[in-house]
Design goal:
single chain; 38% helix; Aspartate Aminotransferase, domain 1; 7-stranded mixed β-sheet; 4-stranded antiparallel β-sheet; alpha/beta; Aspartate Aminotransferase, domain 2; 16% strand
């Protein structure tokens, strides 16, 4: 693998050499993984599925998963495509709707994979700056883009654009509007998802992932929910067997135990409130988060040294060495014990670096 490719992927996922946990002493709050295990139904289903059938190819259309997901999300199976994480679905969408010189728009700062996918397709990257409060930029709708991405809740800010604003955006954009809802299950407000809007807006695609709220980041499963016409087109572009047999089993079982997922979400929401309160006491500005992470800011203060000092104490958080974010840290919401383990040394560091 080339050094350029390794560096590009490392920047995307927040990997830094030497930061991957190799012992129990490391507290990993830099990649937004769920600190709680997935449903016991998932483990039971996987144990049952580990048999001689592994010699066979998986279902290329993920029909069973799509049927169960359709019941959960109130759509038809024909409205769903399953992918190898929502990242693969983003790749499929970009290949479907963006060719050389096609305009692809999104507000920044946000998920950096959009940049990579546009570059691969030789599309024209059109960015619109978020205002300071990370509300929806009015100029986004006017970019005449073939494809518009909106991460909602946004990463790295954790902020949420309302359903009403997304309706207005869907009416105004000229091309396909993709709402990337990787973190929406953690939103405090009910009804935050745009899935119900797909019947009214044929240009709308909603993405969901099993990596965050369902605690299945290692299985790599995501969903696209859209009109049947869009899904049929995406089916022509995806790889034949893009999900393995065990990933399909795990995701299907996870959907069959929604109460387990919702209990874990509630636990993370409680820890998030505690984390935000602790950070505010230290003078951080914390954006209102609807995700399983928070973004804490000390305006005008480069926080790389704070990040490095935490790293030396085996506490990993995310620092973005990019303009406009150098005074921020993105912190995954861990268990109550992990939150306490973070706040105590962070207070000491802040006292030493007022």
């Amino acid at each position: 693998m080339s050094s350029y490719f390794r560096k590009n992927i490392a920047a995307l996922v927040g990997y830094v050499p030497g930061e991957q946990p190799r012992d129990e002493g490391i507290i990993k709050l830099n990649t937004n993984e769920n600190p709680y295990p997935s449903s016991p139904l998932v483990f039971a289903a996987l144990r049952k599925a580990i048999n001689r059938s592994l010699r066979l190819y998986p279902d290329p259309f993920a029909d069973n998963l799509r049927a169960v997901a359709a019941q959960v999300y109130g759509v038809r199976p024909e409205n769903i495509l399953a992918g190898n994480g929502s990242d693969e679905i983003l790749s499929i969408l970009t290949r479907c709707f963006a060719g050389p010189q096609d305009r692809v728009a999104f507000p920044v700062p946000t998920y950096s994979l959009y940049d990579t996918l546009i570059a691969i397709q030789q599309g024209e990257r059109i960015t619109v700056d978020y205002p300071p409060d990370f509300s929806l930029p009015e100029a986004l709708a006017a970019q005449n883009a073939a494809l518009t991405f909106l991460c909602n809740p946004n990463s790295p800010s954790g902020t949420l654009v309302s359903l009403h604003e997304i309706e207005r955006l869907a009416r105004a954009v000229s091309g396909i509007l993709v709402i990337d809802e990787a973190y929406v299950d953690f939103a405090e407000s009910e009804g935050a998802s745009t899935v119900p809007l797909i019947t009214r807006f044929p240009n709308l695609v909603v993405l969901r992932t099993f990596s965050k709220s369902f605690s299945l980041a290692g299985m790599r499963v995501g969903l696209a929910i859209a009109s049947e016409e869009i899904i049929l087109g995406m089916m022509k572009v995806k790889d034949s067997y893009n999900l393995n047999r065990l990933s399909l089993v795990a995701a299907t079982a996870a959907l069959q135990d929604m109460p387990w997922m919702m209990r874990n979400v509630a636990r993370i929401q409680r820890s998030r409130r505690r984390l935000i309160a602790g950070l505010k006491k230290m003078g951080f500005y914390v954006y209102p988060s609807h995700a399983n992470f928070v973004m804490a800011r000390k305006r005008g203060q480069n926080l790389k040294e704070v990040y490095e000092q935490l790293k030396n104490k085996k506490i990993l958080v995310r620092y973005f060495d990019t303009p406009g974010l150098q005074d921020c840290l993105r912190i995954t919401v861990g268990t109550p014990q992990e939150i306490q383990a973070l706040l105590k040394p962070l207070q000491t560091i802040e006292n030493l670096n007022p």
